[in-house]
Amino acid sequence: MKRNLTLFTTAALISAAVVWGGPALSQPAPGQKTNLATGLPAGEPEALTPKAAHKVFHDTQREVSGLVYDGRYEQALQRCLAFRKQFKGDKEFLGLLWTWVQLGKKYPKARAALVEIRNGDVRECLEGRGYWALFREVMAINRALQQEGKTYELFNSLREKDPGLAQQCYSLAEGMLVTKGEYQWCYDHMGEPQARLESFCKDMDAELKRLEFIQHTEEIRKQRGWTNAPGILRPEGPASIKKSAKDRFVSQTRQLIEILVATNHQAEAEKIRDEAVTILDDARLKSAVTDALHHIRK
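Above: the chain sequence. Below: its structure as tokens.
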């Protein structure tokens, strides 16, 4: 299954190159149907464009950092709370977590507020009002607070109380489940292995194609003499983006192979390995089946 990097149109690449974050989320009214993938009311237009949302994030992060530097901790907390109210469940809010946790080290009230937000999200999930982005928010907060065991507790509860939501959130939880040795559950819920490999490949291709587009844009800037405008990429950027995209593909594929090996599907694991190596010639992929066997037997 050799692949090339011609999967995406220029329009899609321009969109992907603008910003990594998504739009602000508004919450559905009682009884209103919800898009379970995003938590947005079904059919409701997005409140902010990705570019505008990302600008709000950067402005807020800069403002909060300045307030913390000045020792105005309560004002910093209130700014964080206002931002989270606007971007509940969104990637932009997740980007602010590190700054919020640092504030919490100086101002315990800020950490307590973050714990309260997490606990509220958990209640929503357990009371049938959860969605994919909200679970992602819980997971990110727990990671920031170094309480990742609580994410596993929540996911276990969802498997019993809301199997549909648990299935939606599987992609977020897979690494955690593999770490816990829950290979059979993963195999039963992960979908068709071949389709998953193709999905990993498409994600890598998209990232590399995005980089290609950005580099082309930078070259045009130079040719037109736009040297006073800030560049999109730092000098080390291209190599870092390439490495990140390839590392993610390797990691996802090795995890898929480990699940297959652990559930006695070694022939399928070897097939996935062989196809992955044709996509990316990487020693970590070549040794994936052997490594999985050694890891499982420990």
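The chain has 16 helices and no strands.
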